[in-house]
Amino acid sequence: MRNTRPSFAEGKQECAAIGKAAAPCEKPGGKEGRASVGNRRIRQCWFALRHGAEVLRDLDFRLAKGGFYFLTGPSGAGKTSLLQLLYLARRPTRGRIQLFDQDLTDAPRDVLPDFRRRIGVVFQDFRLIRHLSAFDNVALPLRIAGRSDAEVEGPVREMLAWVGLADRASARPPTLSGGEQQRVAIARAVISQPELLVADEPTGNVDADMATRLLHLFTALNRLGTTIVVATHDVSLIARTPGARLMRLEKGSMADPTGILRNPPTEVRGR
Ligand SMILES: Nc1ncnc2c1ncn2[C@@H]1O[C@H](COP(=O)(O)OP(=O)(O)OP(=O)(O)O)[C@@H](O)[C@H]1O
Known about the structure:
Elements (H helix, E strand, L loop, with lengths): L16 H5 L12 E3 L3 E9 L5 E10 L4 E5 L6 H8 L7 E6 L2 E2 L8 H5 L2 E4 L11 H11 L4 H14 L15 H13 L5 E5 L7 H16 L3 E5 L3 H5 L5 E6 L2 E3 L16
Parallel strand pairs: 4-9, 4-10, 7-8, 8-9
Antiparallel strand pairs: 1-2, 2-3, 2-5, 5-6, 10-11
Helix pairs in contact: 4-5, 4-6
Adenosine-5'-triphosphate (ATP) binds next to helix 2.
Protein backbone atom coordinates (compact mmCIF):
# COMPACT_ATOMS: atom_id res chain seq x y z
CA MET A 1 0.00 0.00 0.00
CA ARG A 2 1.59 3.25 -1.05
CA ASN A 3 -0.24 5.09 1.70
CA THR A 4 2.47 3.81 3.98
CA ARG A 5 5.07 5.83 2.09
CA PRO A 6 6.29 9.03 3.70
CA SER A 7 4.25 12.06 2.72
CA PHE A 8 5.47 15.07 0.83
CA ALA A 9 5.26 16.99 4.07
CA GLU A 10 8.26 15.01 5.26
CA GLY A 11 10.25 16.57 2.42
CA LYS A 12 11.34 20.18 2.75
CA GLN A 13 8.51 22.58 2.07
CA GLU A 14 7.04 20.42 -0.66
CA CYS A 15 3.38 20.02 -1.27
CA ALA A 16 1.81 17.41 0.99
CA ALA A 17 -1.09 16.85 -1.37
CA ILE A 18 0.39 13.90 -3.17
CA GLY A 19 1.18 11.95 -0.04
CA LYS A 20 -2.34 12.55 1.22
CA ALA A 21 -3.95 11.64 -2.06
CA ALA A 22 -1.90 8.56 -2.95
CA ALA A 23 -4.20 5.81 -4.09
CA PRO A 24 -4.08 2.52 -2.20
CA CYS A 25 -2.93 0.35 -5.08
CA GLU A 26 0.27 -1.52 -5.90
CA LYS A 27 2.71 -0.66 -8.71
CA PRO A 28 5.87 -1.16 -14.84
CA GLY A 29 13.42 -1.95 -28.13
CA GLY A 30 14.85 -3.52 -34.89
CA LYS A 31 16.34 -6.54 -34.31
CA GLU A 32 14.43 -8.46 -31.80
CA GLY A 33 14.88 -5.91 -29.16
CA ARG A 34 13.75 -4.22 -25.05
CA ALA A 35 13.13 -0.55 -22.98
CA SER A 36 12.92 -1.25 -19.21
CA VAL A 37 12.32 0.55 -15.87
CA GLY A 38 14.28 -1.37 -12.35
CA ASN A 39 11.91 -3.84 -13.25
CA ARG A 40 11.09 -1.57 -16.18
CA ARG A 41 13.03 -2.56 -19.19
CA ILE A 42 13.18 -2.01 -22.93
CA ARG A 43 15.07 -4.68 -24.80
CA GLN A 44 16.34 -4.12 -28.32
CA CYS A 45 13.27 -2.08 -29.10
CA TRP A 46 12.59 -0.73 -32.54
CA PHE A 47 9.63 1.39 -33.35
CA ALA A 48 8.38 2.26 -36.80
CA LEU A 49 5.45 4.46 -37.72
CA ARG A 50 2.58 2.98 -39.67
CA HIS A 51 3.91 4.37 -42.93
CA GLY A 52 7.20 2.57 -42.30
CA ALA A 53 9.54 5.33 -41.10
CA GLU A 54 11.76 4.01 -38.33
CA VAL A 55 11.65 6.37 -35.34
CA LEU A 56 13.48 4.35 -32.66
CA ARG A 57 16.29 1.90 -33.27
CA ASP A 58 17.80 -0.86 -31.22
CA LEU A 59 17.10 0.63 -27.78
CA ASP A 60 18.18 -1.61 -24.97
CA PHE A 61 18.10 -0.27 -21.44
CA ARG A 62 16.73 -0.69 -17.99
CA LEU A 63 15.38 2.08 -15.76
CA ALA A 64 16.01 1.54 -12.07
CA LYS A 65 12.94 1.60 -9.89
CA GLY A 66 12.91 4.94 -8.07
CA GLY A 67 15.39 6.51 -10.49
CA PHE A 68 15.23 10.02 -11.93
CA TYR A 69 16.03 10.25 -15.63
CA PHE A 70 16.22 13.08 -18.10
CA LEU A 71 15.73 12.24 -21.76
CA THR A 72 17.42 14.72 -24.05
CA GLY A 73 18.19 15.01 -27.73
CA PRO A 74 17.48 17.22 -30.71
CA SER A 75 14.00 17.89 -31.98
CA GLY A 76 12.77 14.87 -33.91
CA ALA A 77 15.22 12.46 -32.21
CA GLY A 78 12.38 10.29 -30.94
CA LYS A 79 11.91 11.42 -27.33
CA THR A 80 8.12 11.62 -27.48
CA SER A 81 8.02 8.27 -29.27
CA LEU A 82 10.10 6.64 -26.55
CA LEU A 83 7.87 8.13 -23.84
CA GLN A 84 4.85 6.74 -25.69
CA LEU A 85 6.37 3.27 -25.39
CA LEU A 86 6.92 3.87 -21.67
CA TYR A 87 3.36 4.93 -20.97
CA LEU A 88 2.03 2.11 -23.08
CA ALA A 89 0.40 4.24 -25.75
CA ARG A 90 2.42 2.42 -28.43
CA ARG A 91 4.00 -0.96 -28.74
CA PRO A 92 7.43 -1.63 -30.17
CA THR A 93 7.51 -2.83 -33.76
CA ARG A 94 10.25 -5.23 -32.77
CA GLY A 95 11.71 -6.00 -29.35
CA ARG A 96 10.30 -6.35 -25.86
CA ILE A 97 9.01 -3.91 -23.26
CA GLN A 98 8.77 -4.88 -19.63
CA LEU A 99 7.13 -2.65 -17.04
CA PHE A 100 6.20 -3.34 -13.42
CA ASP A 101 8.01 -6.70 -13.64
CA GLN A 102 5.84 -7.87 -16.51
CA ASP A 103 6.51 -8.23 -20.18
CA LEU A 104 3.75 -6.15 -21.73
CA THR A 105 4.90 -6.34 -25.35
CA ASP A 106 2.05 -8.58 -26.36
CA ALA A 107 -0.29 -7.93 -23.43
CA PRO A 108 -3.96 -7.97 -24.39
CA ARG A 109 -5.37 -4.50 -24.94
CA ASP A 110 -7.87 -4.85 -22.09
CA VAL A 111 -5.19 -5.29 -19.41
CA LEU A 112 -3.33 -2.10 -20.35
CA PRO A 113 -5.64 0.41 -18.57
CA ASP A 114 -4.78 -1.16 -15.21
CA PHE A 115 -1.09 -0.63 -15.90
CA ARG A 116 -1.63 2.84 -17.30
CA ARG A 117 -3.33 3.89 -14.06
CA ARG A 118 0.01 3.31 -12.36
CA ILE A 119 1.69 5.81 -14.67
CA GLY A 120 1.35 9.59 -14.50
CA VAL A 121 1.78 11.29 -17.85
CA VAL A 122 2.42 14.94 -18.65
CA PHE A 123 1.70 15.21 -22.36
CA GLN A 124 3.49 17.75 -24.51
CA ASP A 125 0.06 19.02 -25.64
CA PHE A 126 -1.43 18.72 -22.09
CA ARG A 127 -4.59 16.79 -23.12
CA LEU A 128 -6.81 18.35 -20.51
CA ILE A 129 -10.52 17.67 -20.67
CA ARG A 130 -11.93 20.89 -22.08
CA HIS A 131 -15.33 20.82 -20.44
CA LEU A 132 -13.99 20.10 -16.95
CA SER A 133 -12.65 22.77 -14.60
CA ALA A 134 -9.00 22.83 -13.56
CA PHE A 135 -10.13 21.33 -10.24
CA ASP A 136 -11.97 18.46 -11.89
CA ASN A 137 -9.10 17.75 -14.30
CA VAL A 138 -6.69 17.40 -11.38
CA ALA A 139 -9.22 15.37 -9.39
CA LEU A 140 -9.78 12.89 -12.19
CA PRO A 141 -7.15 10.25 -11.24
CA LEU A 142 -8.37 10.26 -7.64
CA ARG A 143 -12.00 9.89 -8.67
CA ILE A 144 -11.12 7.06 -11.04
CA ALA A 145 -9.38 5.41 -8.08
CA GLY A 146 -12.66 5.63 -6.17
CA ARG A 147 -11.91 8.56 -3.87
CA SER A 148 -14.89 10.38 -2.41
CA ASP A 149 -15.45 14.11 -2.91
CA ALA A 150 -14.38 14.69 0.69
CA GLU A 151 -11.11 12.83 0.11
CA VAL A 152 -10.43 14.65 -3.14
CA GLU A 153 -11.12 18.21 -2.02
CA GLY A 154 -8.09 18.90 0.20
CA PRO A 155 -5.32 17.35 -1.91
CA VAL A 156 -6.60 18.90 -5.14
CA ARG A 157 -6.86 22.38 -3.59
CA GLU A 158 -3.39 22.01 -2.14
CA MET A 159 -1.95 20.79 -5.42
CA LEU A 160 -3.52 23.67 -7.34
CA ALA A 161 -2.05 26.08 -4.80
CA TRP A 162 1.35 24.45 -5.19
CA VAL A 163 1.34 25.03 -8.94
CA GLY A 164 0.12 28.61 -8.43
CA LEU A 165 -3.45 28.09 -9.59
CA ALA A 166 -5.46 28.32 -6.37
CA ASP A 167 -7.55 31.11 -7.83
CA ARG A 168 -8.13 29.32 -11.15
CA ALA A 169 -9.71 26.13 -9.78
CA SER A 170 -13.01 26.64 -11.52
CA ALA A 171 -11.55 27.80 -14.84
CA ARG A 172 -11.88 25.51 -17.85
CA PRO A 173 -8.81 24.76 -19.99
CA PRO A 174 -9.78 26.94 -22.97
CA THR A 175 -9.74 29.96 -20.67
CA LEU A 176 -6.27 29.15 -19.27
CA SER A 177 -2.94 30.23 -20.75
CA GLY A 178 -0.56 27.61 -22.13
CA GLY A 179 1.57 27.76 -18.99
CA GLU A 180 -1.50 27.44 -16.75
CA GLN A 181 -2.73 24.44 -18.72
CA GLN A 182 0.69 22.86 -18.40
CA ARG A 183 0.57 23.28 -14.63
CA VAL A 184 -2.89 21.70 -14.44
CA ALA A 185 -1.55 18.80 -16.54
CA ILE A 186 1.37 18.35 -14.15
CA ALA A 187 -0.88 18.52 -11.09
CA ARG A 188 -3.12 15.85 -12.63
CA ALA A 189 -0.15 13.61 -13.42
CA VAL A 190 1.36 13.68 -9.93
CA ILE A 191 -1.70 13.92 -7.65
CA SER A 192 -2.07 10.17 -7.17
CA GLN A 193 1.64 9.56 -6.61
CA PRO A 194 2.08 7.22 -9.58
CA GLU A 195 4.77 4.55 -9.63
CA LEU A 196 6.14 5.94 -12.86
CA LEU A 197 5.91 9.56 -14.01
CA VAL A 198 6.57 10.31 -17.66
CA ALA A 199 6.73 14.01 -18.58
CA ASP A 200 7.22 15.45 -22.05
CA GLU A 201 8.75 18.95 -21.92
CA PRO A 202 6.91 19.71 -18.66
CA THR A 203 8.43 23.15 -18.20
CA GLY A 204 8.26 24.29 -21.81
CA ASN A 205 5.61 26.93 -21.15
CA VAL A 206 6.46 28.27 -17.71
CA ASP A 207 8.88 30.87 -16.40
CA ALA A 208 12.12 30.01 -14.59
CA ASP A 209 10.66 30.37 -11.08
CA MET A 210 7.74 28.07 -11.86
CA ALA A 211 10.10 25.59 -13.55
CA THR A 212 12.06 25.44 -10.30
CA ARG A 213 8.88 24.88 -8.33
CA LEU A 214 7.76 22.10 -10.65
CA LEU A 215 11.18 20.51 -10.44
CA HIS A 216 10.78 20.43 -6.64
CA LEU A 217 7.49 18.65 -7.14
CA PHE A 218 9.16 16.01 -9.28
CA THR A 219 12.08 15.52 -6.91
CA ALA A 220 9.72 15.25 -3.94
CA LEU A 221 7.67 12.66 -5.81
CA ASN A 222 10.86 10.84 -6.67
CA ARG A 223 11.86 10.76 -3.00
CA LEU A 224 8.58 9.00 -2.31
CA GLY A 225 9.65 6.24 -4.69
CA THR A 226 8.26 7.27 -8.06
CA THR A 227 10.45 6.58 -11.06
CA ILE A 228 10.65 9.78 -13.10
CA VAL A 229 11.42 10.19 -16.79
CA VAL A 230 11.44 13.79 -18.06
CA ALA A 231 12.05 14.63 -21.71
CA THR A 232 13.46 18.13 -21.90
CA HIS A 233 15.65 20.57 -23.79
CA ASP A 234 16.13 22.58 -20.59
CA VAL A 235 19.69 21.86 -19.50
CA SER A 236 19.28 24.00 -16.38
CA LEU A 237 16.72 21.51 -15.06
CA ILE A 238 19.22 18.72 -15.50
CA ALA A 239 22.00 20.69 -13.84
CA ARG A 240 19.78 21.33 -10.82
CA THR A 241 18.88 17.70 -10.21
CA PRO A 242 21.75 15.95 -8.45
CA GLY A 243 21.70 12.21 -8.89
CA ALA A 244 19.51 12.26 -11.97
CA ARG A 245 20.74 10.27 -14.95
CA LEU A 246 20.77 11.25 -18.58
CA MET A 247 19.61 9.43 -21.65
CA ARG A 248 20.36 11.09 -24.94
CA LEU A 249 18.61 10.16 -28.15
CA GLU A 250 19.92 11.02 -31.57
CA LYS A 251 18.10 9.94 -34.68
CA GLY A 252 16.22 7.30 -32.73
CA SER A 253 19.23 5.71 -31.05
CA MET A 254 20.86 6.20 -27.67
CA ALA A 255 23.95 8.36 -27.94
CA ASP A 256 26.72 9.25 -25.55
CA PRO A 257 28.92 11.66 -27.47
CA THR A 258 30.71 13.16 -24.48
CA GLY A 259 31.50 9.96 -22.67
CA ILE A 260 30.26 11.66 -19.49
CA LEU A 261 26.66 10.55 -19.78
CA ARG A 262 25.92 7.04 -18.76
CA ASN A 263 23.90 5.41 -21.47
CA PRO A 264 22.10 3.21 -21.30
CA PRO A 265 21.30 3.87 -17.65
CA THR A 266 21.65 0.75 -15.58
CA GLU A 267 21.75 2.07 -12.07
CA VAL A 268 20.93 5.10 -9.99
CA ARG A 269 23.49 6.63 -7.68
CA GLY A 270 22.71 6.28 -4.02
CA ARG A 271 19.79 3.88 -4.45
N1 LIG B 1 2.30 10.84 -36.36
C1 LIG B 1 3.45 10.98 -37.02
N2 LIG B 1 3.47 10.89 -38.38
C2 LIG B 1 4.63 11.01 -39.05
N3 LIG B 1 5.82 11.20 -38.46
C3 LIG B 1 5.86 11.28 -37.13
C4 LIG B 1 4.68 11.18 -36.35
N4 LIG B 1 5.02 11.30 -35.04
C5 LIG B 1 6.35 11.48 -35.02
N5 LIG B 1 6.85 11.45 -36.27
C6 LIG B 1 8.27 11.56 -36.64
O1 LIG B 1 8.99 10.71 -35.78
C7 LIG B 1 10.24 11.31 -35.43
C8 LIG B 1 10.39 11.36 -33.94
O2 LIG B 1 9.40 12.25 -33.42
P1 LIG B 1 9.28 12.55 -31.86
O3 LIG B 1 8.08 13.42 -31.70
O4 LIG B 1 9.33 11.28 -31.13
O5 LIG B 1 10.64 13.40 -31.61
P2 LIG B 1 11.04 14.31 -30.37
O6 LIG B 1 12.46 13.99 -30.06
O7 LIG B 1 10.07 14.15 -29.27
O8 LIG B 1 10.93 15.78 -30.98
P3 LIG B 1 10.62 17.19 -30.22
O9 LIG B 1 11.79 17.48 -29.31
O10 LIG B 1 10.54 18.17 -31.36
O11 LIG B 1 9.32 17.05 -29.49
C9 LIG B 1 10.29 12.67 -36.10
O12 LIG B 1 11.03 12.53 -37.30
C10 LIG B 1 8.83 12.95 -36.41
O13 LIG B 1 8.73 13.76 -37.55
